[in-house]
Specification:
It is a single chain. This protein is α/β, with parallel strands linked by helices. The protein is built from three helices and nine strands, in the order βαβαβββαββββ. The protein has a six-stranded mixed sheet, sandwiched between helices. The protein has a three-stranded antiparallel sheet with strand order 1-9-8, with helices on one face. Helix 2 links the parallel strand 2 (about 40-50) and strand 3. Helix 1 packs across helix 2. The longest helix is centred in the N-terminal third of the chain and has 19 residues, at about 20-35. It is globular. The structure holds inosinic acid and magnesium ion. Magnesium ion binds near residues 47, 50 and 51. Magnesium ion binds next to strand 5.
Length: about 180
């Protein structure tokens, strides 16, 4: 531990998951994935933009040859959680690939549920989920999560890829958001 003082931006209330806790968890999940996927054609997929931070760290903690790919979906802010749409598709086919969908956070599960249903139709050899954060109390649809970093309470968080109005993705830790900053 460096013990160095961390300056929180105005929007953040307190650090929920520290930089050290994240890197320790990334190493732990990476070793588990390494053990489970050695010898297979592993493909890590993530949903832009938030998941790209976790994917970039996680893939370097998995010591086997692997490929990465990205997709983007529309936010459900405009039409409710059921309204998910692919705005940028994967670059490559996942036919016969061993796929892990890497997520920054799972909240209601609606977004990931939609993504999984689309991807399952494309003939992957297997498909699993790895999420850094899980707001499990908010879950609406039941999802199989093979690799889970941290279970967190029902509170809005920013940092390590997670944003509010596009900002704060670059915080190296995950922080809860101050109520007064949530007026949007
Ligand atoms: P779900 O479909 O409800 O599971 O929502 C998943 C998506 O909502 C995530 O991929 C994030 O983009 C966003 N989201 C959910 N909770 C938070 C949060 O606390 N902070 C930032 N984004 C969040
Ligand atoms: Mg996301």
């Amino acid at each position: 531990m460096s013990g160095k003082h961390v300056e929180l931006p105005d929007i953040a209330k307190k650090i929920l998951v520290t930089e050290e806790q994240i890197s320790e968890k990334v190493r732990e999940l990476g070793s588990r994935i390494f053990a489970d996927y050695e010898g297979t054609d592993l493909r890590l997929l993530t949903v832009l933009k938030g998941g790209s931070f976790f994917l970039a760290d996680l893939c370097r903690a998995i010591d086997i040859p692997l490929e990465i790919d990205f997709m983007a979906v529309s936010s459900y802010a405009d039409g409710g959680p059921g309204n998910v749409r692919i705005t940028k598709d994967l670059s490559d086919s996942i036919d016969d690939a061993s796929v892990i969908v890497v997520e920054d956070i799972i909240d209601t599960g609606m977004t990931l549920n939609y993504i999984l249903s689309v991807l399952r139709g494309r003939g992957p050899r297997s498909i699993e989920v790895c999420t850094l954060l899980d707001k499990d109390v908010r879950r609406i649809v039941d999802l199989p999560i093979a690799y889970r970093g941290f279970s967190i309470p029902d509170t809005f968080v920013v940092g390590y890829g997670l944003d509010v109005n596009g900002l704060y993705r670059n915080l190296p830790y995950v922080a809860t958001v101050a109520e007064e900053a949530m007026v949007r």
